[in-house]
């Protein structure tokens, strides 16, 4: 069923949303009557290009060439190919048309995070290769109605879960109504949600999305975050992907697993054994070399750096290992044909498009160079003398702006806009009282 038929089969839908992801992963676009669906599907919805380059509050970036210097020119929102999806977190039936942004002459707007990922994937395709990816999304359910953040009471028992209860079915069942609605909505939206588990933090959960084409994996993660945040509010609490909502509890991560298929559909990381191919090692080497440059993508907000604590399940040193969750890059065990790389650095607050662009861009650069990584780690990576991942926002901004690796893995326009955005947000962070910082980021990122 095409998108127009999908809408026609749902006469109760009276409004649509046409939107793309900004640099922080927020949906930016327009609300239109359902009668405008044909125009939206034709890619005729106009939007200022500067809208995809705003700060965390949605304010213009001071001095951005996209605003006054260019006359704040329009671009076009064109459908991403997903078609309309339902928006079950709203009170009235509505549909969302996920889009990406083009200039009026038809050229891709490379300040669009989805276009930046496509820029990377085009380079893979030029080599006859196709990355396949999957994401693991951690988030907290939070009662933010009072002065202090705390877990919401269970709708079943009325009690608050104050412990981590790792992989506890009781913790999942306490919010069974929310998860039933979440999985039903994922099915309706075409988001391939698989297992859900309770995690180490109080009120913390993880949902894994199935592997597939890398662009679809990013689309799925972006839609899942919109869905989880919106649906949680319907249930009377917040879903937060913020990297560290609680100082004394585990942070939220978004781990990425990826492998690469050749034109015959063969996994080029598979050598029939546990070690993986030379191509896998080259990809690992690229990811390690680009980690300082890509840290700002992996940890994009002021709160992101609270997560980098030794021994707290977030990697702090640049290294790799086989079947070792203390390393930044892990090669999971399992069947050789499923040999893959797990990149474990990113927080839950990342933009999924930029995350995959940075990780896959780095892996490709390593393959192009034929680079070899250092020896894989053994034992506890936290106890070893490793080069540190940038652990302050200032250091990450500086590395992203100046490290040559950044321009190897991302387009120049994206780099310029992202740096300007993060510098403005850094100033905003300093000007925001500490008590208000969580409110700024809690269910925004």
From TrEMBL:
Cofactor(s) for this UniProt protein: Mg(2+)
SMART domains this protein is in?
Gln-synt_C
Q: Which domain of life is it from?
A: Bacteria
UniProt key word Membrane: no
Tell me a GO biological process for this protein.
glutamine biosynthetic process
Kindly give the SUPFAM superfamilies that the UniProt entry links to this protein.
Glutamine synthetase, N-terminal domain (SSF54368), Glutamine synthetase/guanido kinase (SSF55931)
Signal peptide feature range: none
Name the Gene Ontology molecular function terms of this record.
Answer: glutamine synthetase activity
Domain GS catalytic intervals: 113-445
Keyword annotations from UniProtKB, A to Z: Ligase
Protein family according to the UniProt entry: Belongs to the glutamine synthetase family.
Instruction: Kindly provide the name given to this protein in its UniProt entry.
Output: Glutamate--putrescine ligase
Q: What species was this sequence derived from?
A: Hasllibacter halocynthiae
Q: What is the lineage of its organism?
A: Bacteria, Pseudomonadati, Pseudomonadota, Alphaproteobacteria, Rhodobacterales
């Amino acid at each position: 069923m095409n998108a127009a038929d999908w809408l026609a089969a749902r006469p109760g839908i009276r409004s649509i949303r046409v939107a793309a992801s900004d640099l922080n992963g927020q949906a930016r676009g327009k609300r239109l009557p359902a009668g405008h669906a044909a125009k939206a599907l034709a890619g005729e919805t106009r939007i200022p290009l500067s809208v995809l380059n705003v700060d965390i509050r949605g304010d213009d970036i001071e001095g951005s060439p996209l605003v006054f210097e260019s006359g704040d020119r329009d671009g076009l929102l064109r459908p991403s190919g997903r078609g309309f999806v339902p928006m079950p977190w709203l009170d009235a039936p509505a549909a969302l048309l996920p889009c990406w942004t083009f200039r009026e002459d038809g050229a891709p707007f490379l300040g669009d995070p989805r276009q930046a990922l496509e820029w990377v994937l085009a380079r893979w395709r030029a080599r006859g290769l196709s990355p396949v990816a999957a994401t693991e999304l951690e988030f907290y359910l939070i009662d933010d109605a009072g002065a202090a953040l705390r877990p919401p009471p269970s709708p079943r028992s009325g009690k608050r879960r104050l412990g981590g209860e790792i992989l506890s079915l009781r913790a999942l069942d306490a919010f069974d109504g929310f998860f039933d609605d979440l999985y039903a909505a994922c099915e309706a939206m075409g988001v391939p949600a698989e297992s859900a588990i309770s995690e180490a933090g109080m009120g913390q959960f993880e949902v894994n999305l199935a592997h597939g084409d890398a662009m679809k994996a990013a689309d799925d993660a972006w839609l899942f975050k919109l869905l989880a945040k919106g649906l949680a509010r319907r249930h009377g609490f917040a879903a937060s992907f913020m990297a560290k909502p609680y100082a004394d509890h585990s942070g939220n991560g978004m781990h990425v697993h990826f492998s690469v298929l050749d034109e015959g559909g063969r996994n080029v990381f598979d050598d029939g054994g546990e070690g993986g191919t030379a191509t896998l090692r080259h990809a690992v080497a690229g990811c390690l070399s680009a980690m300082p440059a890509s840290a700002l993508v992996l940890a994009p907000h002021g709160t992101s750096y609270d997560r980098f604590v030794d021994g707290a399940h977030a990697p702090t040193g640049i290294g790799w290992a086989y079947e070792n969750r203390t390393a930044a890059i892990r090669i999971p065990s399992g069947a050789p044909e499923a040999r893959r790389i797990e990149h474990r650095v990113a927080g839950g607050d990342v933009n999924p498009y930029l995350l995959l662009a940075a990780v896959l861009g780095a892996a490709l650069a390593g393959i192009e160079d034929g680079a070899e990584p250092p020896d894989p780690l053994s034992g506890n990576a936290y106890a070893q003398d490793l080069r540190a991942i940038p652990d302050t926002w200032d250091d990450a901004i500086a590395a992203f702006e100046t490290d040559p690796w950044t321009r190897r893995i991302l387009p120049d326009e994206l780099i310029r806009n992202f740096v300007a955005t993060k510098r403005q947000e850094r100033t905003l962070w300093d000007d925001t009282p500490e008590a208000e910082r969580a409110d700024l980021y809690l269910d925004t990122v």
